[in-house]
Amino acid sequence: MTMFQSFVLSPKSVWICWAEDPQYWRVSPMQNSRFSQKAELLDVCWLQIRGTFDTAILDKDTTYSVLRKVHLNPGSPDLIKQEGEEWLALEVGKFQPAKVSREITANLLDGTTHWKTGLVFAGVEIRAVSA
Predict the structure, then answer these.
(1) CA distance 89 to 24
(2) Which of 122, 108, 24, 106 is nearest to 70 (CA)?
(3) Who's near 50: CB < 8 A, 6+ residues apart?
(4) Is 48 helix (H, G, I), strand (E, B) or coil?
(5) DSSP track, 79-123
(6) What is the tens place of the pLDDT at every residue in 7-48?
(7) What are the CA-CA distances from residue 66 to residues 33, 76, 83, 126 (Å)?
(8) From CA 93, how far away is CA 97, in angstroms rounded?
(9) What residues have CB less than 8 Å from 65, skipping those under 6 apart?
(10) Is the model's pLDDT at 69 over the cut of 50?
(11) What 3-state class would DSSP assign to 12?
(12) pLDDT for position 83
């Protein structure tokens, strides 16, 4: 058994609605981070980010936490309360591979009609939290 593993799904390895259009998203490298890229939301009405992960490589008896690594640019609407320049690790949930199907999906969705801007997404982290 491997203890306290961590896996990262980068913005390029998840599906981001409208990410292929530079009018809505800007993807760029991240310096000095275990996350290789970041996707900056410029302006969209429909916000959706979905990542899928194959649990077959994980230890079946370990509990894992699924986290989204995000940041809000200054002046962004208050989607998430944040102070300073820190990146936030927002826990989506926890799971044990022995108790779920082979794949898990993390989905961020805001389909309301107001426009969103300023969210910076670095990726999804799957982190072992206990054995």
Answers:
(1) 23
(2) 122
(3) 14, 15, 105, 106, 107, 108
(4) strand
(5) SS---TTPPEEEEEEEE-GGGS-SEEEEEEEE--SS-B--EEEEE
(6) 999 999 999 999 999 999 999 999 888 889 999 999 999 999
(7) 18, 25, 22, 5
(8) 13
(9) 91, 93, 94, 126, 127, 129
(10) yes
(11) helix
(12) 57
Q: Is 33 helix (H, G, I), strand (E, B) or coil?
A: coil
The token pair that represents 48 in the structure block: 């959706």
The pTM of the full predicted model, rounded to 2 decimals, is 0.86
Q: How confident is the model at residue 1 (pLDDT cuts 50, 70, 90)?
A: very low
Name residue, tokens 């200054």.
Answer: 74
Q: Locate 130 and state its tokens.
A: 């206990």
